[in-house]
Amino acid sequence: MKTADRGVNVLIRTENHHDYKNVFNLHYSAFGNREDESRLIERIRKSDGFIRELSIVIEQEGLLVGHILISKAKVMNEQQEKEVLVLAPIAVDPQVQRSGIGKKLMEEGIRRSKELGFGLIFLIGHPTYYPKFGFKPAREFGLELKQYKVPDDVFMVVEIRNGELEKVKGELLYPEVFF
Ligand SMILES: CC(C)(COP(=O)(O)OP(=O)(O)OC[C@H]1O[C@@H](n2cnc3c(N)ncnc32)[C@H](O)[C@@H]1OP(=O)(O)O)[C@@H](O)C(=O)NCCC(=O)NCCS
User: Fold this and answer.
1) Nearest 5°: phi and psi at 117?
2) Which atom of ligand 1 is nearest to the CA of 88?
3) pLDDT at position 3, please?
4) What is the mean pLDDT of each successive set of 10 residues along the chain, which is 179 residues long?
5) Residue-wise over 25-52: b if at least 16 C-beta within 10 A, else e?
6) Phi/psi at 93 (5° precision)
7) Using a 6 Å cutoff on CB, does residue 20 contact ligand 1?
8) What is the pLDDT of residue 8?
């Protein structure tokens, strides 16, 4: 999808293997010169939970300036196991942060996830950034997270199919590649 933003050429598209190096470097610099997120992406790409269409990049004037990855996880309880999505990570080039690129990636990621028929997207993230995209504290809906010890307000979920939060209860399980 190509759009012209105040005269700036912006392209949002599915990541391909030519992007891998740029995506690695992008997360490395956005996360303060640490490799953890870039390495996580490499592991997710090789895993069963990877969904090609949900690894999305954004280019501005031909340069890769943002990336979001949404992949599969599970919510389990004694009666059921339900496939859900987890959003991790998202990064925008530090030189162009706060110009709406993160918002575009979030909206496109959510739109595609809906289109693919998923019901819930979870994340662990900053409690002031994600609520504008519909994310709410997940524990309020009978959803639990034990793998990461995080406060209630950073463990969030958004319902992308009506009624899903009513139906799905239990513990969110991130796949092994996250650890
Ligand atoms: C989080 C991130 C992806 C947002 O991208 P962005 O393009 O800067 O976001 P947008 O331009 O759409 O939105 C900017 C707004 O979000 C807020 N915001 C940006 N990063 C934030 C953060 N980490 N926590 C809370 N709010 C944040 C800004 O204050 C800004 O609000 P304002 O417009 O009222 O000033 C980007 O800041 C980033 O790459 N951060 C480093 C990596 C990271 O922390 N990723 C998220 C964890 S997986």
Assistant:
1) 90, 10
2) 48
3) 72
4) 77 98 98 98 98 98 97 95 98 97 98 98 97 98 97 98 96 98
5) ebbbebeeeeeebbebbeebbeeebbbe
6) -50, 125
7) no
8) 82
CA distance 172 to 77: 9
**Residues facing residue 8 across a β-bridge:** 5
Residue nearest to atom 27 of ligand 1 (CA): 129
Please state, in angstroms and rounded to a whole number, the distance separating the CA atoms of residues 157 and 172.
10
Ligand 1 midpoint to CA 82 (Å): 30
Position 1 scores a pLDDT of 74
pLDDT at 6: 72
Take residue 126 and report the two structure tokens written for it. 């900053």
172's CB contacts (< 8 A; 6+ apart) are 73, 74, 75, 84, 86, 122, 138, 143, 144, 145, 147, 155
Cβ proximity of 112 and 53 under 8 Å = yes
CA distances (Å), origin 161, targets 61, 65, 79, 154, 168: 35, 30, 21, 22, 11
CA of 129 to the centre of ligand 1 (A): 6
pTM beyond cutoff 0.70: yes
In this structure, which amino acid lies at residue 134?
Answer: G
